Amino acid sequence: MSEPHENGAILTAEQLALLEAIQNRLIPAGDGMPGAGDAGCANTLDRYLSERPALRRPLFAALYAVEAAAHAASAAAGDAATADESTHSAFLLLSNAARDDVLRGLEKTLPELFEVLLHQTYTAYYTNPAVLLILGWNPPQPEGYPTPPPFDEALLANVKQRGKVWRDA
Amino acid sequence: MAPRQDVADVLIIGAGASGAAAAWSLSSAGLNVVCLEQGDWIDPTDYPHQSVEWELHRQTDFAKDPNVRQRPEDYPLNNDDSPITPLMFNAVGGSTIHWSGHFPRFRPSDFRVKTLDGVADDWPITYWDLAPYYEANDANIGVSGLNGDPGSPPRTPRQTPPLGLDAASHAYIRGLEKLGWHWWPSDNALITEPFGEGRQVCNYCGPCDVGCPRGAMSSAHVTYWPAALAKGVQLITRARVREITVDRRGRANGAVYYTADGGIAQQRARVVIVACNGVGTPRLLLNSVSGLFPHGLANSNGLVGTHLMFHPVAFVTGVFAEPVDGHVGPLGLLLHCQEFYETDTSRGFVRGFQLQMCRDSGPLSTATGSFPGESVPWGGDHHRVQRERSAHMLTIGVMIEDLPEAHNRVDLDPTLADGNGIPAPRISYTVSENSRNCLDYAIARARELLDAASAKEVINQAITRETGWHLMGTARMGDNPATSVVNRHGQAHDVPNLFIVDGSLFATSAAVNPTSTIQALALYISDWLKQNFREVA
Questions:
Q1: How far apart are CA B49 and CA B201, in angstroms?
Q2: What is the CATH number of the domain that holds B153?
Q3: Sign of the CA dihedral with B98 first, then B101, B105, and B106 last
Q4: Band of residue A2 on the pLDDT scale cut at 50, 70, 90
Q5: Is the dihedral of CA B351, B357, B362, B363 positive or negative?
Q6: What is the structure's pLDDT at A163?
C-alpha cells in the first residue's frame, strides 16, 4: 500500500474528472466535511487501481455505465449538448439532482458495479488524513485509549444468585 | 531435492495455535522437534495500527480472507459452494495473529451431545479429561478474566484481571440485567497486567483482528514459540509442505516441502504431527497420495475432509443515542451470555448458542456497515447518519453450534492450486435446518437484548458470509475406526505414527470459540505421545 504513486497513473484526466464528480455526489460537501471528490479521493482510487489490477475492470465498467446513463438522460431531456466540451462527459453537464438520479439508477440496475464505486470511495474518504483530522480520529497506535476503571464484580450479584447454568456430563 | 536432514523425533506441520503448543510440550520432554511453516514471522512494525490507512490494510494485505489477502504464503480456496468463507492467517502464530482472542472453554455437555440430546456424536474424551490441559494452557499463555462463571465448571483464578468497565460494558449490562439473563466477563487470550517476557499490556486500541503490535494478545508467536525455540525446536519458515511421505510399512516418515526459493526439500521424522487447521489438514492428507494410500493418507474410510463445521454467525448491531465508544477496547472481547446454551427443544432446535458482546471499529467500518454490512447511505444524508453511528454502535456476535454432517466437506479442487502447484481446497457446505432455526431464534434474542439495552435502532443480517474463523471436524476423533479418522489420542487409525492436533479433531463444535479447546487438545495429545513415544515411534 505504500508504493510511490503518480496521480493519473491509470485513469485519464477525463476519467479522474468524472470520478471526482461522482464522488462529490456519493459523499457531498456539508456538515463541515469536504466532498469526497474535493478531498482527492479520485486520485486515491487511481492509486488503488495501480496497486490492485483486479479493481480496474469493474471500476471502468461503472464509469462507462454512469456515462451511458447520463447521455440517455440528456437525450431524453432533449438537451442540445450531451457531453461537456473539455471532458467529453455527459455526467458533468447534469444538475446535481440529475446526477443523483443517474447514480440511483446504477445502484438499482447494476448494484455490483455501484458497490465497487461506493465502497472504494468510502475507503478512500475514511482513510484520508485531512478527513480523519476533521473527525478527530487518530490511528489506533501508539497511544491507544485510556484504560477504563477496573471491572466491578458487584455487578455480577444477580447472575451469581441465579446459580449454575451448565449441565454436568 | 536438497540432501536429507537428520531424522527428527517429531515433525510438526504448521506453526499456529496447536502446532506451537505441541512443539513446546514435546520439546520440554527433550524430544528433537522440527516444525515446517508455510508463512513467516510477522514483524511487529508491519502491523498497520500506526497508519492512517489501517482500515484499508484490513481490506487488503491484512484481510481475514486469504482469497482477498493473496500473500505469497496464502493458498487459494474454492468457496463457490459455501455460504460461509473460511478465514485464516498463514504465519508463525497462524490465525492467532488475526483473531479476537475470545477464549471460552467448551462445557461438559459439549462432549456428550449424543448421550444428552440424541444428535451427532459423543467425543471419545470428556471435559474432565481436558480440564487439566485447559488450566495448563491458560497458565502458559496468559488469560484475562474472572473465575466463578456459573456458566462453566470452576477454574483457577485467571492470570490477569478482566477488561475494565467502559461505556460499552455499561450498555450491555443494562440490557442483560433488565432481562435477567446469564452473563459474565469473557475469558480473553489477552493480558491486562504484565505477564510473560517482552509483552505489553492491552492499551484498548481496538482492532485486534489485524494483529497486536504490543504482544498483549496471547498469540502463539509471543507465547509458545519463544519458549519452544529456547528448548531447541527447529522452526523452518516459508516451508510449504507438498505431502507427507510413508515407508513400505505404511508409516509416516517425513514430509516433502517447497522452500522459499522454490526448491524442494525433505524432512524425515519418526513421528509426524499435522497442525494445519480444519481446512489445511484435510487438504494435506488428501494431497498425500501413495500406493498404500491411494485416496489420501489416513483416509481408508473416506472420512478425511468430511463433517466440516464452521460456527454459523450472525451479527446484530445496535445504534445507541448516546456514545458507547464502540471503537475503544478489544474489538471482539467484552462479555458473553450463555443463557441459551443448553438444549431446550421447545425453541425449535437442538443444542444452543452464545451471544458474544463485541464492540465496533473505526470510521470506515462504520461507513461500510460494520459487522452486519449495512452501509451508511450515500448522498445528502451521509454525514448525518455517519455522525449518528460513529462511536454509537455495538455488535453482538450470535454464534451457534454447528452439528457435524458428512456432506459438509473439504476436498481438492480439480484445477485450482497454490503458488507451488499444490491442489487447493474446495469447500462444500450448507447450513442445516437446525442451524437456521437456531440462528433465527438467536438473532431474535440478540435484538431483544439490544432493545433492552436501549438501542434506538437494531440492524442485522440472517447470516454473515465472512465468518469462517472456526474450522473444525474434518479429521474427527473417535474410538471407532469406521466412523472417525483419529483415536482419542489424536493418533490416525490408519497410520500409528501420524497425529493430528488442530480443530480437525473436533467430533462436535460446541457453540463457543474453539482455540482454547484446540490448544488444550494439543497439550493433551502431546502428553500422551511423550509417555508413549518409544512404542509409537
A1: 16
A2: 3.50.50.60
A3: negative
A4: very low
A5: positive
A6: 94
Q: What is the CA radius of gyration of chain A?
A: 23
- How many Å apart are CA A49 and CA A3, to the nearest integer? 12
The distance of B109 to chain A (nearest Cα, Å) reads 5
Domain of residue B269 covers 8-536
Distance CA A128, CA A124 (A): 6
pLDDT one-digit tens code per residue, B480-501: 999 999 999 999 999 999 999 9
Domain assignment present for A37: yes
Nearest CA in chain A to B59: A123
Domain count of the fold of chain B: 1
In a domain, A167, yes or no: no
Q: Which residues make Cβ contacts (< 8 Å) with residue B108, sequence separation at least 6?
A: A166, A167, A168, A169, B126, B127, B128, B153
B44: exposed, middle or buried (Cβ count in 10 Å: 0-12, 13-18, 19+): middle
Compare CB distances from B164 to A128, A139, A151 and report the shortest one's residue.
A151
CB contact under 8 A, A25 and B378: yes
C-alpha B237/C-alpha B256 separation (Å) is 14
Q: What is the mean pLDDT of chain B?
A: 96
Residue of A nearest to B169 (CA): A151
Q: Which residues does chain A have within 8 Å of residue B52's beta carbon, measured at their own beta carbons?
A: 127-129, 132, 139
Give the end-to-end CA distance of chain B in Å, rounded to a whole number: 25
Per-residue confidence (pLDDT) for residue B453, from 0 to 100: 97
- N-term to C-term CA, chain A: 52
Which residue in A144, A148, A167 is closest to B108 by CB distance?
A167
Give the gap in angstroms from C-alpha B394 to the nearest C-alpha of chain A.
17
Interface of A with B in 2-21 (CB under 8 A): none
pLDDT confidence bin for A1, thresholds 50/70/90? very low
The CB density around residue B130, as the number of other CB atoms within 10 Å, is 22
Closest Cα partner for B239 from B422, B504, B43, B7? B422
Predicted TM-score of the model (pTM): 0.96
Phi then psi for residue B417, to 5 deg, are -145, 165
Number of compact structural domains in chain A: 1
Task: Say if residue A86's pLDDT is above 90.
Answer: no
Residue type, B522: A
For B151, the closest of A126, A140, A165 (CB atoms) is: A165
Q: How far apart are CA A166 and CA B107, in angstroms?
A: 7
State how far the Cα of B424 lies from the Cα of B411, in Å rounded to an integer: 8
- Work out the percent of chain B whose per-residue pLDDT is above 90: 95
Q: Is the peptide bond before A142 cis (omega within 30 degrees of 0)?
A: yes
Extended beta strands in A13-138, E state: none
Question: Quick one: three-class SS letters along A25-42?
Answer: HHCCCECCECCCCCCCHH
**Quick check: is B2 in a domain?**
no
Q: Which residue has the cell 459455501?
A: B82
Q: Would an 8 Å CB–CB cutoff place A77 in contact with chain B? A: no
Whether A150 contacts chain B with CB within 8 A: yes
Percent of chain B predicted with pLDDT > 70: 99
Domain for residue A139, yes or no?
Answer: yes
Per the domain annotation, does B484 fall within a domain?
yes
Residue B70 resides in a domain: yes
Q: What is the complex's ipTM, to 2 decimals?
A: 0.94
Residue B152 pLDDT greater than 80, yes or no:
yes
Residue B159 lies in a domain: yes
CA distance B26 to chain A (A): 30
- Domain range enclosing A85: 13-162
Q: Tell me whether strands B409-417 and B498-500 are parallel, antiparallel or unpaired.
A: unpaired
B413-435 burial: b if 16+ Cβ within 10 Å, else e: beeeebeeebbbbbbbbebbebb
The rounded distance, in Å, linking the Cα atoms of B307 and B437 is 20
- The answer as to whether A158 is a domain residue is yes
